[in-house]
C-alpha cells in the first residue's frame, strides 16, 4: 500500500499504512464506527515520520495520517553499510524499542511496525527488539524516538568539544 505523496509539502515522500484500527460507539440506533490509521512517510534516504489520523471513514483517516506524518519528519543519520551509527533505546509510554547496528548483508530484522518505519528511513541492515508493551502506536512512536536520538560521530565530537 506504498505510494508517492507529492502534495505533502515535505518533498517527495513515499507513504505506507502501518495499521488501521476500528473503534465503535453504541448509540440508541446502533453502533457507529470510527477509524484510526497509523501512517509512516519517508524518502528512503534518511528522512522519516509517522502520524496517526482519525476519521469516520478509512480514506480520510489515512489522508490525515499522511498529513500528520509529513509534518513530523525527522532526519536519520545512515552509516556506510546502511545501518545506524550506534545502539539506541527508544521509549514511548511503556513500549521500548532497541535499535542496534548490523553488519552488511544482515538485512532488517524487526517486527512489522519497526520494519515499515526503518525501511522508509532507508536503513538496510539493522537489528531491533521490542521490549515492554507491544502496543502498535507506542512502538511506532518509540522507534521514532530512538531514531531521533541518533548522532553521527562528528556531531558527538563537536558537542563534546563545545562542552569543554
Overview of the structural elements:
This protein has 164 residues and is of the alpha+beta class. It folds into two domains: 72 residues, 2-Layer Sandwich (Double Stranded RNA Binding Domain), CATH 3.30.160; 84 residues, Ribosomal Protein S5, domain 2, CATH 3.30.230.10. It contains four helices and nine strands; from the N terminus they run E-E-E-E-H-E-E-E-E-H-E-H-H. The strands form two sheets. A five-stranded antiparallel β-sheet has the order 1-2-3-4-5. Helix 2 packs parallel to helix 3. The termini are far apart. The N terminus is likely disordered.
Order of helices and strands: EEEEHEEEEHEHH
Structural class: alpha+beta
Overall pLDDT level:
92
Tally of domains: 2
Strand content: 35-45%
- Unreliable residue stretches: 3-9
What does the overall shape look like? Answer: elongated
CATH architecture of the largest domain: 2-Layer Sandwich
Which bin fits the share of residues in helices? 25-40%
Outline the fold blueprint:
Blueprint: E1 3-5, E2 13-27, E3 30-42, E4 47-55, H1 58-71, E5 74-75, E6 88-92, E7 95-101, E8 108-109, H2 112-121, E9 126-132, H3 136-149, H4 153-163
Parallel strand pairs: 8-9
Antiparallel strand pairs: 1-2, 2-3, 3-4, 4-5, 6-7, 7-9
Helix pairs in contact: 2-3
Which descriptors would you attach to this protein?
9 strands; 164 residues; four-stranded mixed beta sheet; 4 helices; elongated; 2 domains; disordered N terminus; Double Stranded RNA Binding Domain; Ribosomal Protein S5, domain 2
Amino acid at each position: 500500500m506504498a505510494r508517492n505523496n507529492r502534495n505533502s509539502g515535505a518533498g517527495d515522500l513515499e507513504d505506507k499504512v502501518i495499521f488501521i484500527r476500528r473503534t465503535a460507539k453504541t448509540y440508541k440506533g446502533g453502533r457507529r464506527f470510527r477509524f484510526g490509521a497509523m501512517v509512516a512517510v519517508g524518502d528512503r534516504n534518511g528522512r522519516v515520520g509517522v502520524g496517526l489520523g482519525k476519521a469516520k471513514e478509512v480514506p480520510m483517516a489515512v489522508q490525515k495520517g499522511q498529513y500528520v506524518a509529513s509534518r513530523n519528519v525527522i532526519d536519520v543519520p545512515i552509516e556506510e553499510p546502511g545501518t545506524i551509527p550506534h545502539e539506541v533505546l527508544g521509549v514511548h509510554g511503556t513500549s521500548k524499542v532497541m535499535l542496534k547496528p548490523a553488519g552488511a548483508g544482515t538485512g532488517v530484522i524487526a517486527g512489522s511496525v519497526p520494519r515499515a518505519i526503518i525501511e522508509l528511513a532507508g536503513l538496510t541492515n539493522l537489528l531491533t527488539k521490542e521490549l515492554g508493551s507491544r502496543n502498535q502506536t507506542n512502538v511506532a512512536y518509540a522507534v521514532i524516538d530512538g531514531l531521533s536520538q541518533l548522532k553521527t560521530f562528528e556531531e558527538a565530537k563537536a558537542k563534546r568539544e563545545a562542552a569543554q
